[in-house]
Amino acid sequence: MVYRKINKKLIKKFEIDIGVVYFYKNYVITEINEGVVLNFEKAAKLLQLGIEYYGTKVPFVYISNRINSYSFEPTSHFKSTEMFPNLKGFGVVIYDQLNSDVAKIEQTFINKPTNIFYSLEEAIAWAEELIIID
Fold first, then answer.
1. Which of 23, 21, 26 is CA-nearest to residue 65?
2. Quick check: helix, strand or coil at residue 94?
3. Is residue 54 a contact partner of residue 86, using CB atoms and an 8 Å limit?
4. Is 128 in a helix, a strand, or coil?
């Protein structure tokens, strides 16, 4: 097992058309805007930023902080995870039962470690564990 120090310092924050994206060394946190219907095409800017910050080598975890209600085409995960062989996991922070149900459905479309959390701190701790274990 390799132990690495995880850098929790924010690298860059972006406000893009679909929401806000926070990049850290080994994880990215997104807060998608209320009412967005998110699909592969609408996520293009987010994916472009992911390539810019992590490429295909730097291990990272994606954390969706669902502070807003939005819909997502779960099959879009197939295309996006192919772009990132260095994606180590997908976490979702939920704040209500509806988002919990949606997150459970999404998990079935992702062939990476996934988890649902009730706080952002829990999700970050899980992300750090995934990166350290790698």
1. 21
2. coil
3. yes
4. helix
The CA-to-CA distance between both ends of the chain, in Å, stands at: 8
User: CA-CA distance, 97 to 35, in Å (whole number)?
Assistant: 17
Residues 11, 29: Cα–Cα separation, whole Å:
12
Of 91, 77, 79, 81, give the one whose Cα is nearest residue 28: 91
Q: What is the pLDDT of residues 92-103, one digit of tens each?
A: 999 988 778 778
**pLDDT tens digits along 4-43:** 444 578 999 999 999 999 999 999 999 999 999 888 888 9
CB 53 within 8 A of CB 20: no
How far is the C-alpha of 104 from the C-alpha of 123, rounded, in Å? Answer: 15
DSSP state of 112: S
- 94 vs 116: CA distance, rounded Å: 7
